[in-house]
Amino acid sequence: MHLKWLLLFSLLFAGGLLFKIVRNVKGVQENLPSSDISAPFVLKLFPQKKLRKLFNYDGLWLFPQRQCECEKQPGNYIFQDFYNKSELEAVKERRKAEFKHFQRREGLPQPPPVLAQPNIPFGYPVHGVEVMPLHTIVIPGLQFNGTKVPSYKVTLKALLGTLNTLADTPDYEVMGRGHKKLVILTLSQNRLNFILQHVTYTSTIYHPGVVDIVSIEFGSAVAKFPVNVNQPSIPKLYDPGPEKKLKNLVTIATKTFLRPHKLQILLMSIRQYYPDVTVIVADDSEKPQKINDTYVEHYIMPFGKGWFAGRNLAVSQVTTKYVLWVDDDFLFTKDTKIEELVDVLEKTELDVVGGSVSGNLFQFKLLMEQGEDGDCIHKRSGYFEVLNGFPNCVVTSGIANFFLAHTESLQRVGFDPQLKRVAHTEFFIDGLGNLRVGSCSNVVVNHQSHAKASDPDQASLEKMYSRFRYNSQDQIKFKLTLHYFKNHLQCYTQK
Amino acid sequence: MHLKWLLLFSLLFAGGLLFKIVRNVKGVQENLPSSDISAPFVLKLFPQKKLRKLFNYDGLWLFPQRQCECEKQPGNYIFQDFYNKSELEAVKERRKAEFKHFQRREGLPQPPPVLAQPNIPFGYPVHGVEVMPLHTIVIPGLQFNGTKVPSYKVTLKALLGTLNTLADTPDYEVMGRGHKKLVILTLSQNRLNFILQHVTYTSTIYHPGVVDIVSIEFGSAVAKFPVNVNQPSIPKLYDPGPEKKLKNLVTIATKTFLRPHKLQILLMSIRQYYPDVTVIVADDSEKPQKINDTYVEHYIMPFGKGWFAGRNLAVSQVTTKYVLWVDDDFLFTKDTKIEELVDVLEKTELDVVGGSVSGNLFQFKLLMEQGEDGDCIHKRSGYFEVLNGFPNCVVTSGIANFFLAHTESLQRVGFDPQLKRVAHTEFFIDGLGNLRVGSCSNVVVNHQSHAKASDPDQASLEKMYSRFRYNSQDQIKFKLTLHYFKNHLQCYTQK
């Protein structure tokens, strides 16, 4: 009879426990809207249609695709169309070969990402370990936190360097010191961690700019992490001098061709406000005219060598921190305050900041999509965002031909001397990935009048100038095929 | 009585087990030399003396230190010593300010490494995730593998971008789509992993070259990993043309000053072997003489503008993939095979490859140690290693003034126009971290005789030339203080 009561009690107890469990589960479920409880627990992704509504910017879908595309519209270009059909195949072969060489030098394509597995008993550095070629560092963050076992065997391996530890241990406890494989064999987890804390990596190959993948294993648990072998770029600082005078901070640069009278007007307007700032003039006129100005450096080029060649030449001669680019037909006014542009570059991380040319800012964004057959470039007028701390200024990709730049950045990107006549956007495309560009509306330079000169010699030069300046079909074709080959682009759209 | 036998048997069995266990432990210990078993298990590092014997290269201890040092020896320089004592403090202040600006623009100093903790139930990418500014990517490798619980709450956070997932889920299961914080709340580990597999990261700020740190957490377990926001550099490929003619691959560049007769001899020797390769001549002579050669491009500079200014100018005008630098007093011979140097650059990842000038290779290594008050540069003659695949060639840091280079690399590093007279090593120091340099002994150019010219006009020019060429104390002082400020160096040693 006691047994009967015992059985009844057990059943009641078990029933009560079961009830509590079910109620807990239901309770969790009750936090969820009950109407969806019945929704099938099917694993599904968003349909393509819905996906296309996400991840858009300026009407472009900036999500990984194998191939990018450009809408067929007037003003948009598919670059390969501008080659003669007969030469296109050979061009494609050559571009492919040159691209391969480029990729080899840049370490592209990037290897697949290194993935950390869950529940690995190791601590290790995920990001940020860097060593100069042939140097040694202590690898931070290595630790072991696993189950206690009688003995521990932990193996570290490197590919492009050797390993060691600063821990002073008996020979049998750490083997392979100074080699690519280091084996730690110890009885104490404490000692293991002490040894790991002081593991060193020595870079042994003189090949800066590579990433070594170091592995650490214990039994079947393996973790891998990157060590960047990198020689940091040496700084190129400019001494502004004790008084930080503008003439020691800024050089003005320009190119002139068959317009000495306009150049003269520009120079006189500059001297009104900046009497002693150096002006560098690159001149590819047929008969360059002497310039009477103590602070002008005049460079003579072969006749008609070209627009961007002249820009590259002028910039190559600058010895100050900043260079102000102006066209030879600009006109300085009281609103052409170079100091304002200097202030923007001094206080931000921008490389280039443009101003306004007679009220025109010419701001445009360049967005890029990658593709197997070449990338797609999309030019959109406007800007990305307002520049922090400078309400009159914005961040964008391209600007007018009136800008202040870090000399070092301009020299690094360069103006392609293959561009002989009309060109502008090409410089900003070449700068993609290397130039941070801003634009401020409060610094203004004027444009000289476009009216023809009355003096017959000047008028004659101007006539020759406009013949060179005409953006002919041949030139357009040249520039488009240049984008195809040089920049490995597929096509271009603009809005 | 059965009980007695049972007891005896159990004791024997237990004794046998115990013996086996002890023997196993001893067995492990026996693999270790027994003489060290008794060594105290003290955790200690190598003493400084022993450490100094490790991690050496060319007699330099390449291990992290707060400050680096240069031996005081003739030929070695402590750069700040070359400033006037009165100006030194002000110079230090200015250099500190300019260095701060540089660091801000370069994202330095690097933040401390991101460390992975042990036993985190997450899988995630450790290295290699990259996204273009404003673009979206799927984050690879995210997974959860933890203990089964009734419900899972996993939170992801980004700083410089927004998060989402391609998984089509009810609203309550994933919250914060398109924001910096994404919260996943689900009952099924299966569904959790499906959602995680398809998590996307969208870059939202237009600031290329930064690293976002994304975190993923479950309860107290947190993992962090980097996402590189990077706009890849756009390629600058050169079309070698259908026949890969040398004239379409290589431009020869030189600078001349007060030595038109030597330049003429150089040109004639070039034309013997290369009749139509373009030669670019930068000329800052007082009265530049006309050059009669269809394939020479002659650039006139202000008188005495300078050595490196001229080099920078010449290189700025090159439109071919490669540029061959020569001095104006060289002499081409049948061993001056440009094609051999082209072959080296085409097949390796080098940026520059030098040849021999009348048997002299001038190879030297540049090793750098970092330090708070500026870095230390050590110049050592010789090379690092033989160039893979080219037994006549080596990898080094500096070479003679006879070399073939990728035009794009040379333009990127540049020749500092502040260096007006004697300079050589400065270019290779500026190139540290940016130029991979090689040197081959099998391609030779000769040096013209140093004998004075007999023609009186030429002799007069040569006399003026040697006055400019004299490496005066003022010039040496200028170059040393330039290293101090511009390159943020502390000192220099040479062997």
Structure summary:
With 495 residues, chain A is of the alpha+beta class.
Tell me what you see in this structure.
Two copies of one chain form a homodimer. With 495 residues, chain A is α+β, with helices and mostly antiparallel strands. Chain A has two domains: 114-229, Sandwich (Immunoglobulin-like); 246-494, Spore Coat Polysaccharide Biosynthesis Protein SpsA, Chain A (Alpha-Beta Complex), CATH 3.90.550. Chain A is built from 13 helices and 28 strands. In chain A, strands 16, 17, 18, 19, 20, 21, 24, 25, 26 and 27 form a ten-stranded mixed β-sheet that branches. In chain A, strand 22 (364-369) and strand 23 form a beta hairpin. At the A-B interface, helix 1, helix 4, strand 4, strand 5 and strand 7 of A face helix 4, strand 4, strand 5, strand 7 and strand 8 of B.
